[in-house]
Design brief:
Strands 1, 2, 3, 4, 5, 6, 7, 8 and 9 form a nine-stranded mixed β-sheet that branches. The protein has helices at about 20-25, 45-50, 90-115, 120-125, 135-145, 150-160, 175-185, 205-210, 225-240, 265-275; strands at about 5, 30-35, 55-70, 75-80, 170-175, 185-190, 215-220, 245, 280-284. The radius of gyration is 18 Å and the shape is globular. By secondary structure, the protein is an alpha/beta fold. The chain folds into two domains: about 5-85 and about 170-284, Alpha-Beta Barrel (TIM Barrel); about 95-160, DNA polymerase, domain 1, CATH 1.10.150. The site of one fe (iii) ion has 4 residues, from loops. One fe (iii) ion (FE) binds next to loops. One of its GO terms (molecular function) is 5'-3' DNA exonuclease activity. This is PHP domain-containing protein. It comes from Nocardia bovistercoris. InterPro entries: PHP_dom, PHP_domain, Pol/His_phosphatase_N, Pol/histidinol_Pase-like.
């Protein structure tokens, strides 16, 4: 069984449509794939529609949250949400709020760039973005305009939090997110919680507090985690009785990682399925 529980499509900042994503997942030999676009479920139906025979689809999302960093200051945190009921009203309203935050934030960053003389058109960037506008869409516009050679370079030089054009957005407090996902029948898994190359990371004591209010699991095997990061997280998961996952965080050509390059153990996947009451997994 090969199981990849963290991937992005054009419904956020991936470059494969949901249909291409499930088709590539099957072609690469995966048995289970989760679609986890940032802050929305817009890709779910197209992924279901295009699901190839023999592939199991997990409908999910990666939610933009804010937690407490090791230094006691707020830090951005990504929380994977699996198999929740998309009709839950409170959770649905929060997704709408995050979507609006994303649009305002990307517009703000694009306007700062334009004011500084960079060839960036805020409306065109937003038009290219689909339902979840993000910095990768700005990065692609900068590459297309010849400002930087690659998406990675755009992040390093222009888009990072300490960079000249960064604009904050108001993400969901992590505790509220864990509770909303649980109420909607979903299972929450902290994504790449030790990914230091993205910046500061969440305090480990926050994970202990979240486990008490219903956090489901920790993503352990991830391209941005070192062996030492995995050891720390595995130890914590064992101590707290949390599910552990491994996934590629595939983004098509926006990143170099391949589908299925990191995977989840079947027993861990079964625990997610067993715990969820929102929507079922789908296979045909
Ligand atoms: P945003 O959601 O707008 O804050 O943008 C964050 C997204 O940018 C993440 O989900 C990643 O997909 C992507 N990202 C972050 N750092 C990099 C990087 N160095 N190279 C490519 N993509 C990145
Ligand atoms: Fe992303
Ligand atoms: Fe993430
Ligand atoms: Zn992701």
């Amino acid at each position: 069984m090969r199981i990849d529980l963290h991937t992005h499509s054009t419904a956020s900042d991936g470059t494969d449509t949901p249909a291409e994503l499930v088709s590539k997942a099957a072609a690469t030999g995966l048995d289970v794939v989760a679609i986890t676009d940032h802050d929305n479920t817009a890709g779910w139906d197209a992924a279901v529609e295009a699901l190839p025979d023999g592939l199991t689809l997990v409908r999910g999302m990666e939610m933009s949250c804010v937690g407490l960093g090791e230094d006691g200051l707020p830090v951005p945190v990504h929380l994977l949400a699996y198999l929740f009921d998309p009709g839950d009203e409170v959770f649905g309203r929060e997704r709408e709020r995050l979507r609006a935050e994303r649009i305002e934030r990307v517009r703000g960053m694009a306007e700062r760039m334009r004011a500084d003389g960079l060839p960036v058109d805020p409306d065109a960037v937003l038009a290219s973005a689909g339902p979840s506008a993000g910095r990768p869409h700005l990065a692609r516009a900068l590459v297309a305009a010849g400002v930087v050679p690659s998406v990675g370079a755009a992040f390093e030089e222009l888009l990072a939090p300490h960079g000249p054009y960064y604009v904050e957005k108001a993400d969901t407090p992590l505790r509220n997110a864990v509770e909303m996902i649980a109420t909607a029948g979903g299972v929450s898994v902290l994504a790449h919680a030790r990914a230091r190359k993205r910046g500061r990371v969440l305090a480990l004591r926050e994970v202990r507090d979240l486990a008490e209010i219903g956090l489901g699991g920790l993503e352990i095997a991830h391209p941005d985690h070192s062996d030492a990061d995995r050891d720390v997280l595995s130890g914590l998961a064992a101590e707290l009785g949390l599910i552990t996952t491994g996934s590629s965080d595939y983004h098509g050509t926006n990143k170099t990682i391949r589908l299925g390059e990191f995977t989840t153990e079947p027993e861990q996947f079964e625990q997610i399925v067993g715990k969820a009451t929102g929507v079922p997994v789908i296979n045909r």
